[in-house]
Amino acid sequence: MGQVSILLLESEDIAWFRSEPGAARGAAAALARRVGLDERRSGEVALAVSEAASNLVKHAVDGAILLRVVRTEHQAGVEFLAVDSGPGMADVPEAMRDGMSSAGTLGIGLGSVARLADVFDVHSLPGRGTVIAARFWATRSAGQQREPSVAGLTRAISGEQVCGDAWAARIDEGSGPAALLMLCDGLGHGPMAALAAAAAVQAFRSGRARQPADVLDEIHRALRGTRGAAVAVARVEPDAGRLLYCGVGNVAAALIGDDTRSSPLSHPGIVGHRMPQLRTFEYPLPPGGALVMHSDGLTDRWDPDSMPGLLRHLPVVVAGHLLRQAGVRRDDAGVLVAKGMW
């Protein structure tokens, strides 16, 4: 494979909103102002979020809006994700046409949302659900960069405000660009699980190790004194066309190609408490494919073949569809998707 460059965005999930268009709009405007967007741009973010949230209330099944902060080295922005389980759109281009807004309501319409956003993506499955992603930077020039190769989503168990699942990614330039990815599922749920997950993220981001097993060992030392976690670390090497993977505990992974799916293995154990003898597994990267890592807050019964065209969309949209199809409410959920870097 030819040499590639890898782009990552830092992101911070702020809140999920269900059946609350007014609350989502107000939170979006406040969040946009907090990260440096001016009044006009903050108003555009609020308007777009309000349209998406109102559509969910009127037409969706089990719909929710996620607001989050995204950051580059130089500035911050706001991203929202709208996820629902039905009824979907049979004709997405028609739904994007000017004047088509929520079956005759006075909203601005998805076409206008797309024009307001620096980045917009939508994937819909008729009768099954839709995922919409939109990103807003302070200045339009910031939106002209390449799309990031990695995105993740977390959602707390029903009734909790904090999530014990977390993810992180960093680049290792080394002899050739590689991406190191980490997904953590703090044991149980609630504040103590979130504390373990935060310790894992901090150890991952500040660590010096470059190979998955060594990264896991650093995280293991950082999690002593916490309740521990299931953790998996992947190293994606696009130039070598390979994935190196090492996991401990109940974190699932899948390498998806157009007509292939393989499942990297994890060891039994608890990072921070009972670490097994670690072994790193190597897998070929499927051309044009994706790597998915997720906690047991998603079942493993999701099927990419049932979501046609999904791999042509942004990683965050792929993650949203997986959460929509396989996420459970009785546990924290976390999913990470990497694609487009090989």
TrEMBL record:
Pfam families: HATPase_c_2, SpoIIE. The keyword Repeat does not apply. It comes from the Bacteria. Keywords: ATP-binding, Nucleotide-binding. InterPro entries: HATPase_C_sf (IPR036890), HATPase_dom (IPR003594), PPM-type-like_dom_sf (IPR036457), PPM-type_phosphatase-like_dom (IPR001932), Ptase_RsbX (IPR039248). GO terms for molecular function: ATP binding. The keyword Transmembrane does not apply. Residues 147-340 form the PPM-type phosphatase domain. CDD domains: HATPase_RsbT-like (cd16934). This is ATP-binding SpoIIE family protein phosphatase. It comes from Streptacidiphilus jeojiensis.
